[in-house]
């Protein structure tokens, strides 16, 4: 008999989400198949995913031609292309949303990462994406930068469901949960139905090991090398401990009594970067009730083939996690600097992917007849190009 390992993982309280999206995946029915056959109940995207999707597929050509004829600028074109895919994905995932009473079935889209240090513009962008997609099972991704914290609160206060992304450290995670609670309190004061607002906090995992392991290798002692591959799981486990404390508080209970749902921890960046480590380590070692694990499709299939599910691999391991952190400090690893480095690099990487996305769309618009990608160029296009593209309106 075939073991339904992903079913066992879901039964242990872990929601399986896909960390990928493309129009090919949508049009082929691949996303719906993962929902039906692989327990996938959510989707996350980011600028890197969209840059790859638009660079690899011809299925965007008809929309690019129409956008070129209309003369939209490149940034508006990116919004139209990405929100089209996310809206479609929301519809595909709607059965999971309905079956979970609105908890799962969510699809995330990220605000322009260049706004990561501008709170007011981040909120405005979050509202715009919320209006454009116009689906109840949408998540707006806002990065957990210092400027992102008030933006998280403000978006939630408007009744917008939020996926907080790029969380690496425990102290910042505590600030994220504070921003969430404050946002729900304001939403309640604004008259919003708290039962309709949900949120996840995306705690990045494998990147922590990549950065810490690099430093341990440089230190080079036997003790340091013995700690390789342990920091990321320890970090996430201690984050879950903080989550458990916050969401058992009297402050939270008052919101729960008003219909609020807890902000679930979401384990992100769960593909193994080091081939010496088990390919599903960041799934197996982070099984706990009320969590989300967002995985690339390769990890989903790997877990379906050989993942080992235990009821809870987190809450009984807090002491071990603290010992790992003590060992890292003794070995000379400055975890505060690790976290600062990862947050800075995370924003920079998403900005680079966003610029790559803009550049690719700019070139595609030019090829479709818009010139260099600015609105005025469409007026200078010839009538033949417009007529050829117009049939796809």
UniProtKB/TrEMBL annotation:
For this protein, what reaction is catalysed?
A: D-sedoheptulose 7-phosphate + D-glyceraldehyde 3-phosphate = D-erythrose 4-phosphate + beta-D-fructose 6-phosphate
Any idea which residues are catalytic in this one? 141
| Xref: PROSITE patterns | TRANSALDOLASE_1
Instruction: Spell out the subcellular localization from the entry.
Output: Cytoplasm
What the entry lists under InterPro entries is as follows: Aldolase_TIM, TAL/FSA, Transaldolase_2, Transaldolase_AS
This protein's record includes keyword Signal: no
Give one GO biological process term: pentose-phosphate shunt
Record GO terms (molecular function): transaldolase activity
SUPFAM superfamilies xrefs: Aldolase
Its Enzyme Commission number(s) read 2.2.1.2
Q: Which Pfam families match?
A: TAL_FSA
The biological pathway it contributes to is: Carbohydrate degradation; pentose phosphate pathway; D-glyceraldehyde 3-phosphate and beta-D-fructose 6-phosphate from D-ribose 5-phosphate and D-xylulose 5-phosphate (non-oxidative stage): step 2/3
Q: Which domain of life is it from?
A: Bacteria
Is DNA damage one of the keywords UniProt gives this record?
no
Q: Where is this region: Disordered?
A: 367-393
Q: Which UniProt keywords apply?
A: Cytoplasm, Pentose shunt, Schiff base, Transferase
Q: Which GO terms describe its cellular component?
A: cytoplasm
Question: Its biological function?
Answer: Transaldolase is important for the balance of metabolites in the pentose-phosphate pathway.
Could you tell me which PANTHER family the record lists for this protein? TRANSALDOLASE (PTHR10683)
Homology family: Belongs to the transaldolase family. Type 2 subfamily.
Stated name of the protein:
Transaldolase
- Show the taxonomic lineage: Bacteria, Bacillati, Actinomycetota, Actinomycetes, Micromonosporales
Name of the gene: tal
């Amino acid at each position: 008999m075939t073991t339904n390992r992903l079913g066992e993982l879901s039964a242990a309280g872990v929601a399986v989400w896909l960390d990928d999206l493309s129009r090919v995946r949508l049009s082929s029915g691949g996303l719906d198949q993962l929902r039906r056959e692989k327990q996938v109940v959510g989707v996350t995207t980011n600028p890197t995913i969209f840059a790859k999707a638009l660079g690899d597929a011809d299925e965007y050509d008809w929309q690019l031609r129409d956008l070129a004829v209309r003369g939209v600028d490149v940034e508006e074109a990116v919004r139209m292309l990405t929100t089209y895919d996310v809206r479609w994905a929301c519809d595909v995932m709607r059965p999971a949303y309905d079956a979970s009473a609105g908890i799962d079935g969510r699809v995330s889209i990220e605000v322009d990462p260049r706004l990561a240090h501008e709170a007011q513009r981040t909120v405005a962008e979050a509202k715009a994406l919320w209006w454009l997609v116009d689906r109840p099972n949408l998540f707006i991704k806002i990065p957990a930068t210092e400027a992102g914290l008030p933006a998280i609160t403000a978006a939630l206060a408007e009744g917008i469901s939020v996926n907080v992304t790029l969380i690496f450290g425990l102290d910042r995670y505590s600030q994220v949960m504070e921003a969430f609670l404050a946002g729900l309190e304001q939403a309640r004061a604004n008259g919003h139905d708290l039962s309709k607002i949900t949120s996840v906090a995306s705690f990045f995992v494998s990147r922590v090991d990549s950065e810490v392991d690099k430093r341990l290798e440089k230190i080079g002692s036997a003790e340091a090398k013995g700690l390789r591959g342990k920091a990321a799981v320890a970090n996430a486990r201690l984050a879950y401990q903080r989550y458990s404390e916050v969401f058992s508080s009297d402050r939270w209970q008052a919101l729960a009594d008003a219909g609020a749902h807890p902000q679930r921890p979401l384990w992100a960046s769960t593909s193994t970067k080091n081939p010496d480590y088990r390919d599903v380590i960041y799934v197996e070692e982070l099984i706990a009730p009320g969590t989300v694990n967002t995985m690339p499709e390769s990890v989903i299939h790997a877990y379906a083939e050989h993942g080992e599910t235990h009821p809870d691999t987190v809450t009984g391991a807090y002491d071990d996690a603290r010992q790992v952190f003590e060992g890292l400090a003794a070995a000379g690893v400055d975890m505060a600097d690790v976290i600062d480095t990862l947050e800075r690099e995370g924003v920079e990487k998403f900005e680079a992917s966003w610029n790559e996305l803009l550049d690719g769309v700019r070139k595609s618009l030019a090829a479709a007849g818009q010139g260099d990608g600015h609105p005025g160029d469409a007026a200078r296009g010839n009538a033949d190009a417009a007529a050829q593209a117009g049939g796809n309106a």
